[in-house]
Amino acid sequence: MTSYLEIFDIERGEAETLLTVPELIEAPNWAPDGSYLLVNGNGGLFRVPLEVPALEPVETGMATKLNNDHGISPDGATYVVSSHAPGKSCIFTLPATGGEPTRITEAMPSWWHGWSPDGASHTYTAVRDELFWICTCPAAGGKEVRVTGGTGDHYDGPDYTADGAYIWFNSTRGGTMDLWRVRPDGTDLEQMTRDARVNWFPHPRPTGPEVLYLSYEEGVDGHPRDHEVELRMLDTATGETRVLVQLFGGQGSINVPCWHPDGSRFAFMRYSRPE
What we know:
This protein is an all-beta fold. The protein has one domain: Neuraminidase (6 Propeller), CATH 2.120.10. Helices cover 0% and strands 49% of the residues.
């Protein structure tokens, strides 16, 4: 497999390849100062500087076996990762300079997905008593709050809006996998897409009413990799949706927040098609 780390420019409507590697890397986050991207690969975490793109390993201590659910605090000082080292996915934080991690979630499995814009809270997907939930907890760890879920449906991919007013996520609670949003206190639950496609991982734009998301064709189960997919953008002001990119990808393409802080660009992964 060849992985292509891409940057899509909204104004130009085009993507450019920043880095190509002959291995699997996934899920780019953009640093708050705009200078680098954070990705995972082979169970580890890597920085990719924009000026001289390359995979620079980050020391994560005992938090090994990382999956593609990771991120960066709004002030850029702390990383958050989801590690299978304890046996199931568990959330840890660590200094952005690298080092020993601090465990954030006691209950497992927990998959991180979003950091509130004020830096105070995490939002994540969790399975508790065999049911999916969208949860939050304090940034330093603490009491888990179940925001929505528990219906027997799948819930995944929560991410905050730039003002912290909503958490967007994807769920099958409406019958098919669509995008939803809810207040962090669990009120004002609203379904935001209603089409035949299978929609995942919504990421609100930092500077506008748009939401970027990953879209599979009708009938796809889960969020598999190695698939023909689309990156779409929903304008919540007008209700219009447009296709930005068609690519070979899926799992790993935009699992976590991937917008540049000024909303002008976003990062994503695409992968080589089988020969």
